[in-house]
Every structure is written in C-alpha cells, then in structure tokens.
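Handoff note, outgoing to incoming analyst
You'll be picking up this chain. Sequence as last confirmed:
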Amino acid sequence: MLNRIVLMGRLTRDPELRRTQSGTAVTSFSIACDRDFKSQSGEKETDFIDIVAWRGTAEFVSKYFTKGRMAVVEGRLQIRDWTDNNGGKRRSAEVVADNIYFGDSKRDGAPGDYGAPPAYGAPVGRGTPVPMESRSDFAEIGDEDGELPF
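Most recent structure output, in case you need it:
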C-alpha cells in the first residue's frame, strides 16, 4: 500500500510549537494551495490543508517558517475520527509531515531576516546539505591508469 502526499502552499498562520506530556515536540499549521483550474465563476479556488509535524520537523518549522512563507510538505494523509463537545461524531483529514522544504527564497517571502538555512530547501531531520566544494571526504580521480578505483 502507498500513502504518500506532496503539497506546496503558503502557511496561513505562524506555526506554534507544543510538547506532549512526554516532551515530544509537535506543531500544527495549515497551508493554502491554489487549484490549477478556475471555478465556473472564473475564480481560482484554494484548498486549506491541515499539517501536523513531529519531533525535529516540528522544531524546524516553528523556528524557520512564518505566516505567508511558501512550504513544500512531504508526508502521509491521515484520517481521524473524533467526538465533538456535543457528542457528535466528526472526521478530520490532515497530513502528517515527514519532510518540509522551503518553497521560496528569502526575498520571495515576507520581508525580514528569517535566520534560515539556505533557501534551496534543506531536508528536515536530515541536516543541512553541505555544498560539494566544501566536503573534505571527496577526492579528484587521477588519470594515471584510466581505471576507476571501484
């Protein structure tokens, strides 16, 4: 079975970091995603999608993302059944985020310094990518005998 979703949209509010009783970081927010087509009235419609991020991903989002910032979210769709205050059965759909990337650069988003890692979208939970030229564990392959070392 496959349950994988990738979305791109702007945050509708600032993410708020919370912690569970055991201290696990969690944040929830919504993104606005424009549809690719127009309605019969000729206007573009927008879907507002709830996102939940846990642990390091939650901390990353709450630190570097703000309302209006473009985000690319990878994760899985989750359907939750719950009971409201009046005892009515309710159902909610949300995306549980595995990775969140920057969908814009600093100058494309809201003004100000985000203090964020490079705008090309560092994967969450996997560290910030290091440019090839600054990696010390790579070496040039010489032309001595024309054979590759593997």
